[in-house]
Amino acid sequence: MANAVNPNAGKTLDASKLVNLPRLVTAYFTGKPDPAVPAQRVAFGTSGHRGSAFDNAFNENHILAISQAICDHRRRAGITGPLFIGIDTHALSEPALASALEVFAANDVDTMIDAQGGIGAPGGYTPTPVISHAILTYNRNRTANPADGVVITPSHNPPEDGGFKYNPPNGGPADTGITTAIERAANAYLAGALHGVRRIPLNRALQSGHVHRHDYIGPYVADLGNVIDMEAIRSSGVKIGIDPLGGAAVHYWQPIIERYALNATIVSETIDPAFRFMTADWDGKIRMDCSSPYAMARLIAMRDTFDVAFANDTDADRHGIVTRSGGLMNPNHYLATAISYLFGNRPGWGDGKAVGKTVVSSGIIDRVATKMGCRLVEVPVGFKWFVDGLIGGTLGFAGEESAGASFLRRDGSVWSTDKDGIIPGLLAAEITARTGRDPSETFTGLTDELGVPFYARIDAPATSRQKDVLKNISPEQIGMAELAGEPVRATLSAAPGNGAAIGGIKVVTENGWFAARPSGTEDVYKIYAESFRGEDHLRRIQQEAQDAISRVFGAAGPA
Fold it and tell me: Is 55 helix (H, G, I), strand (E, B) or coil?
């Protein structure tokens, strides 16, 4: 079923529809989650624990329990260096930082908070990639006392949500072994009424000697020239538009513009936890999704003002690219464009670097990798699968279909092991500066040679039992020999790049494919599909995919 577009999509909302911030923060401190209710337990997904205080899914008790569980993990793992911690601009992020600092200081953990915090604020705003960069910079050439980090953000989620994610010393998202242990320990603390959680009042924590102000902006901005050709952007005079969408990168762009003398304009530096300036997403909700044409309506309307423009989501780990020639680029299209450019313009990388993609990313990436003579590494959904390849320098580029990516420095060494939405935006300016064509024009040139992809994701209803069936499905169960008139070349329940389970199924033909995965939060499953033969062929793939999954559900017995 296609997603129905809300009448408010692409419009700013009436004040009556905005989140009640005092009520939200009050709910954070007064709500008490019931650990017997699954939706109120700590649950680490692909990007940490997320939820709303209104639902008792992100309250002070959650953060106290998770923070203590992280301290326990650090002791077991021998992590004794500083913990770099950052927040985004969501309303629940600062209260969660206060709660976390009370626990970390009580556990004698040295935390590094942003030096730009205002009066009465524990810290300023710090993007996810900046935390990753800080961890890697600190740990470089260090054999003892490694650092790790925490980012307090629900990413692009609505204003009423909060999020809390942990990055170990490799700088990337924690793997499932770590997150499972933290999740179990945190839920045990919740079930035990927080017995065993060490905590001191915030004022004592700030004066304890364990909370340190840290300059995150300066080192990150100064290092950008080692990953992006900033001189090419400057000397070309390419006209750039930047929209932080009121997120954590808001205070980074002016220092970047000034240091590298860019011809760039920040279209808005407004910070508002209610995000009243945002245009609503497809479902009428405010969501800082820089890959959504509805959420990006403001910047899209300004496309003729700039040679290239870009935006980031709230923690700046995603990018949205807007061009004068094509408007908002499909995330898959920009990933393919970036890969083609980077592997043709980074001689310092040397030979043998691979391209990393998730199983639900576009097949145009496969075709571009083949064209560039690069090995392709296809992994399950989740950026954590790219961390080892990036830190080891075997992956030159890693990207997800949801507009998250990172890539190596110009000399072939690691830049970040988490998604960085800032450098893909600057790369779009570099592409425009050095080629004379914006990324949309570059992508059109690729499709003239490699074919035009038609890609879509739809949702279909599924019960909890059916979602379990799909999560554990085998190629034999799907049993498809043909898809939309073409022979099936592969049926996958494990990613070919690393053999890890994809939590669903992928069926591939020469000119199309589909993948089906259960949603982790809703009673639906997601069908990703793509065709290189046109819209009609895509719709046929989608229909046959739903029919095949329905047969598997039927064979499994009553829902």
Answer: helix
Specify the amino acid at residue 198. R
Q: Single out the catalytic residue among 93, 155, 361, 416.
A: 155
| Dist CA 270 CA 281 (whole Å) | 19
168-187: pLDDT as tens digits: 999 999 999 999 999 999 99
**Known active-site residue 155:** yes
CATH number of 454-555: 3.30.310.50
Q: Got the DSSP string for 13-44?
A: PPGGGS--HHHHHHHHHH----TTSGGGS--E
Domain ranges in the chain? 19-219, 232-276+287-450, 454-555
Q: What would the DSSP string read from start to end of 85-140?
A: EEE-SSTTHHHHHHHHHHHHHHTT--EEEETT--TT-S-----HHHHHHHHHHHHT
Domains 19-219 and 454-555 share a fold: no
C-alpha–C-alpha distance, residues 87 and 153, integer Å: 6
Report in angstroms the alpha-carbon separations of 139 from 146, 151, 398: 6, 18, 22
Look at residue 555 in the predicted model and tell me its pLDDT. Answer: 83
Write the CB contacts of 381 (distance below 8 Å, at least 6 apart in sequence).
Answer: 46, 358, 359, 360, 400, 502, 503, 517
- CB count within 10 Å of CB 519 equals 14
CA atoms within 13 A on the CB side of 102: 19
120 HSE (CA, 13 A, CB side): 0
In terms of CATH architecture, what is 19-219? 3-Layer(aba) Sandwich (3.40)
pTM of the full structure:
0.96
Strands annotated E in 210-306: 211-214, 240-243, 264-266
User: 397 pairs with which residues across the strands?
Assistant: 355, 407
Integer Cα distance of 251 and 262 in angstroms:
16
Question: Which residues of the chain are modeled with pLDDT < 50?
Answer: 1, 119
φ, ψ for residue 358 (rounded to 5)?
-85, 160
232-276+287-450: what CATH class? alpha beta
Instruction: Tell me the Ramachandran region of residue 262: left when phi exceeds 0, alpha when psi lies from -120 to 50, beta otherwise.
Output: beta
Among candidate residues 463, 530, 496, the one with its CA nearest the CA of residue 375: 496
- Contact between 311 and 320 under an 8 Å Cβ cutoff? The reply is yes
pLDDT, tens only, 115-165: 876 545 556 899 999 999 999 999 999 989 999 999 999 999 999 999 999
